[in-house]
Task: inverse folding
């Protein structure tokens, strides 16, 4: 039976799909291509054990039939980004919460045995302790973080009430090939690479001393596959790199001129995952060092030449709503 991957044409989803296909698993991807791209699936698009469905998880009748021959679900489909979640929280709720309810309901009705949810470390908000463990206080700072947390609560509740085998993985600062640079405003790794490829200055937020738990997407993909195949159920686990690295350090690895922009409200000074739980329960450990991951991406710098290019001015314009909402 197939593994159904929602959001499988996205950055993280496409890497998980590749790993599943290369392991000779049958895969069905559901994606509405709002954030994903068919180009992300070029390496598997001609495989007999792969199929793609252009559908929106907000439409239950549209997605439900495609769960019939699936033994497991990996649910990644969601809206990301802070700014648009502040500007349009209703759409985020409909996608990240109601959409997750639709996926859970379709999985339950069709007898899917396993459900792995892509949660977000943004649920921790600005933590009090580092590394941050799974029992840390939940403090979402903006609607995106809140809706991802509510989706996680639905998943865990479905596991409790309906005996669905569920696991939730809280992801920390994922980077790697195909990381997006679009949105408002894109992830720092993709933004920096597009700027470096176009000889534009790297836009460092604040003084760059803030640290992030940069975790390579192939390590993330391996965690999802191990969670999918494990006997662990009703557990929430962090997925991180085992360390944290300053934005200044990242900028140094990428190279090129730099410019500093205003620090943004609602962002933690540090993200750093406590990963002892996933190591113990799944036997998973990260393998790719930041230096090696960045070097690999720099070897393909030309790919980022045509990516959306952010500048100091365009970032200021795009994040205006962010400052207005969270600077009070």
Result:
């Amino acid at each position: 039976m197939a593994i159904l991957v929602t959001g499988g044409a996205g950055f993280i989803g496409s890497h998980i799909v590749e790993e599943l296909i290369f392991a000779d698993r049958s895969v069905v991807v559901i994606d509405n291509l709002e954030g994903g791209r068919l180009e992300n699936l070029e390496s598997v698009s001609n495989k007999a054990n792969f199929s793609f469905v252009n559908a929106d998880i907000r439409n239950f009748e549209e997605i439900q039939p495609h769960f019939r021959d699936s033994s497991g679900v990996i649910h990644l489909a969601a809206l990301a980004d802070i700014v648009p979640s502040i500007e349009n929280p209703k759409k985020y709720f409909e996608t990240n919460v109601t959409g997750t309810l639709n996926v859970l309901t379709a999985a339950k009705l069709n007898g899917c045995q396993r459900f792995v949810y892509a949660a977000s470390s943004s649920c921790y908000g600005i933590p009090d302790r580092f590394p941050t463990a799974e029992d840390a206080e939940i403090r979402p700072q903006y609607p995106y973080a809140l809706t991802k947390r509510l989706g996680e609560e639905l998943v865990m509740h479905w596991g409790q009430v309906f005996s669905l085998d569920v696991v939730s993985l809280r992801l920390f600062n994922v980077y790697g090939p195909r990381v997006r640079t679009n949105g408002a405003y894109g992830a720092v790794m993709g933004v920096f690479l597009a700027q470096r490829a176009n000889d534009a200055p790297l836009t460092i937020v604040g003084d760059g001393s803030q640290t992030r738990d940069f975790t390579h997407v192939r390590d993330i993909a391996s965690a999802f596959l191990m969670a999918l195949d494990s006997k662990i159920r009703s557990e929430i686990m962090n997925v991180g790199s085992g360390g944290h690295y300053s934005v200044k350090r990242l900028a140094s690895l990428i190279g090129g001129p730099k410019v500093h922009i205003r620090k943004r409200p609602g962002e933690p000074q540090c993200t750093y995952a406590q990963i002892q739980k996933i190591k113990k329960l799944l036997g998973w450990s990260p393998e790719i060092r930041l230096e090696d991951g960045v070097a690999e991406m720099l070897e393909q710098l030309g790919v980022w030449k045509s990516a959306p290019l952010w500048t100091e001015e365009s970032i200021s314009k795009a994040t205006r709503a962010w400052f207005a909402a969270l600077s009070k």
In short: The chain has two domains: 2-172+215-239, 175-213+242-271+288-326.
